[in-house]
Specification:
alpha+beta, Nucleoside Triphosphate Pyrophosphohydrolase, six-stranded mixed sheet, three-stranded antiparallel sheet, NUDIX_hydrolase-like_dom_sf, metal ion binding
Amino acid sequence: MSLYCGIACRRKSLWCYRLLSTYVTKTRYLLELKEDDDACKTAQQTGAFYLFHSLAPLLQKSEHQYLAPQHSLSELEKLLAKFGQDTQRIEDSVLLGCSEKHEAWFALDLVLNSSSPINASLQKPQMETELKGSFIELRKALFQLNEKDASLLSTAQALLRWHDAHQFCSRSGQPSKKNMAGSKRVCPSNKIIYYPQMAPVVITLVSDGTQCLLARQSSFPKGMYSALAGFCDIVLGVSRTLFFITSRKLPSV
């Protein structure tokens, strides 16, 4: 029995070591991509891209859920060339993460920062036909996505929105420059560095000033309720946080 327990403990320790080693390796690789523009550009050669149009992700319908298709660099270059856009726009993409095999994931909005956004908007139906999918607002498709796609697309939308809203230095007014990975923006004139800022999903309480609207499930302990969560624009991730309180009475707000 003791021999069996010893073998089981060693196997568990080995599994934990491998898991930690994989996490550390991925973290170091992503850090390299964020700090080294050349390494990030090289990673794009074998990486995968998620496409957006005015912050709406490209999705494909599959039975009762949506799938987020990935595109290679060569496919993306052909698409941009076909619709008259400069392939240099690929540098507007942002790094999202990577797989365990170090395949880097990027996101690119085909309209944001485009030199001719009106023309790009007119081409949206043609792009959807070419890509065999639809650009759908994330909030409408969120709960029909698997966990991985929902997390990646939420992060992508947040980063793309942040870079679109922070193209100029707040001190000098000069255009700031994004690094290849999109992990920061730098003002060339004063070298100020700006990093993407994320905020959590907001939980809203519906209240009349003295009482609030609460929900309760039969599995909750006696006297425990949960606040109803209101939907807000996705920022960094999706969270279904329940705030439990033991009283229906609230102070005036």
